[in-house]
Each structure stands twice: as structure tokens, then as C-alpha cells.
Amino acid sequence: MLAEQGCGIFDRLVLNGPYAGEIWQIDPDRGGFVPVSPGFRAWYTDWLAGP
């Protein structure tokens, strides 16, 4: 887990398999896993620039 977004939403780094290195969000309101970033660097720079 990389970050908690609140309301049961979590950002996670995929470590194995065909999506390894991507960041996916666990969002129960959107049906489960949702891809949010192709890699850690892009996710981290967006996270730093966020509110």
C-alpha cells in the first residue's frame, strides 16, 4: 500500500505479474481495482503536486 485516499480507497503498487510496477487503486465504489498510473515515478510526482 502506498497511500490511503480516505473512504476506504487505497493506492497500491503491483509487484508481480503482467501489471508489475503499475499503481492501482482499490475503490469499493468503482467496483474494486482501478489503474491510476503506469509507474511509481509518475504516481509519486502527481501525488506530490496534489492538494
Describe the structure.
- The chain is of the alpha+beta class.
- It has one helix at 40-49; strands at 3-6, 9-13, 23-27, 32-37.
- Strand 3 and strand 4 (32-37) form a beta hairpin.
- The longest helix has 10 residues, at 40-49.
Short description:
The chain is an alpha+beta fold and 51 residues long.
Structural features:
alpha+beta; four-stranded antiparallel β-sheet; 1 helix; flat
Number of helical runs? 1
| Order of H and E elements | EEEEH
Count of strand segments? 4
Rg estimate, integer Å: 11 Å
Shape: flat
How is the main sheet built?
A: 4 strands, antiparallel
- How far is it from the N-terminal to the C-terminal residue, by CA? 20 Å
Q: What class would the helix/strand composition place it in? A: alpha+beta
Strand order of the largest sheet: 1-2-3-4
Low-confidence stretches: none
- Overall average residue pLDDT: 92
Q: Share of helix among residues?
A: 10-25%
Report strand %: 35-45%
Topology, element by element:
Layout: E1 3-6, E2 9-13, E3 23-27, E4 32-37, H1 40-49
Antiparallel strand pairs: 1-2, 2-3, 3-4
